[in-house]
């Protein structure tokens, strides 16, 4: 569960106040709004990349407002995917586990598990430069999911894809989040993308977050 309560967040001269978002455990939230309205600022605050001036943030009932990013158990897919050029797909996925000092055998098993789930086992020895857009996205998803996060944050990760790749990755995200019971908050400008993925919908307008009508079951 994601619970953002009455938060004030400031990014330089930009400020948004009284932000509240609630997404039940294992559900998929969509955040939409105009460019510059503060969507990414909210996501960064949830991930711990930006401080909250007021209010609180909780995950599954635990207050994480003052916790460091590494202590929040959140996976993050940024707009630019941000893979490491010098690393193989295996090393990209293993990165977070190595930072957390997981045992080598456990890391290897988890990489193999995710690679099979994401259908990239044949790419594990390949480097970033030789991958297609869809392959890069699958690799980034593996890296974000590797440490078994409770929450996944996605900041327009599909905006540069062509229609065929876009549809493929949407289905991937949908299946992986459901299989792993992950609570997600996803920023997008595409209504079709929102409709395919979302269960709870939020719109930010003039600094206020409004919860929209949920998709019919």
Can you walk me through this structure?
With 217 residues, the protein is of the alpha/beta class. The chain has two domains: 1-73 and 153-217, P-loop containing nucleotide triphosphate hydrolases (Rossmann fold, 3-Layer(aba) Sandwich), CATH 3.40.50; 89-148, no CATH class. Helix content is 33%, strand content 28%. The chain has six helices and ten strands, in the order E-E-E-H-E-E-E-H-H-H-E-H-E-H-E-E. The protein has helices at 39-47, 89-99, 104-118, 133-145, 163-179, 191-197; strands at residues 2-11, 14-23, 28-33, 52-59, 62-63, 74-77, 151-155, 183-187, 200-205, 208-212. The strands form two sheets. Strands 6-7-8-3-9-10 form a six-stranded mixed β-sheet. Strand 7 (151-155), helix 5 (163-179) and strand 8 form a beta-alpha-beta unit. Helix 2 (89-99) runs parallel beside helix 4 (133-145) and helix 4 (133-145) runs parallel beside helix 5. The mean pLDDT is 90.
What's the arrangement of secondary structure elements?
Layout: E1 2-11, E2 14-23, E3 28-33, H1 39-47, E4 52-59, E5 62-63, E6 74-77, H2 89-99, H3 104-118, H4 133-145, E7 151-155, H5 163-179, E8 183-187, H6 191-197, E9 200-205, E10 208-212
Parallel strand pairs: 3-8, 3-9, 6-7, 7-8
Antiparallel strand pairs: 1-2, 1-4, 4-5, 9-10
């Amino acid at each position: 569960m994601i619970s953002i309560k009455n938060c004030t967040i400031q990014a330089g001269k930009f400020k948004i106040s009284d932000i509240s978002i609630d997404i039940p455990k294992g559900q998929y939230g969509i955040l939409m709004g105009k460019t510059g309205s503060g969507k990414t600022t909210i996501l960064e605050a949830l991930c711990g990349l930006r401080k909250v001036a007021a209010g609180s943030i909780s995950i599954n009932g635990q207050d994480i407002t003052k916790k460091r990013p590494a202590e929040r158990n959140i996976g993050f897919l940024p707009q630019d995917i941000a893979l490491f050029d010098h690393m193989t797909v295996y090393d990209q996925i293993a990165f977070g586990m190595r930072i957390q000092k997981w045992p080598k055998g456990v890391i290897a098993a988890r990489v193999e598990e995710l690679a099979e789930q994401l259908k990239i086992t044949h790419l594990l020895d390949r480097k970033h430069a030789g991958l297609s857009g869809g392959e890069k996205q699958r690799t980034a998803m593996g890296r974000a999911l590797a440490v078994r996060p409770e929450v996944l944050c996605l900041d327009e990760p599909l905006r540069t894809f062509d229609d065929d790749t876009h549809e493929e990755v949407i289905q991937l995200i949908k299946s992986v989040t459901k299989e792993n019971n992950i609570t997600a908050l996803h920023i997008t400008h595409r209504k079709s993308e929102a409709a395919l993925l979302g269960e709870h919908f939020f719109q930010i307008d003039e600094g206020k977050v409004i919860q929209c009508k949920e998709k019919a079951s």
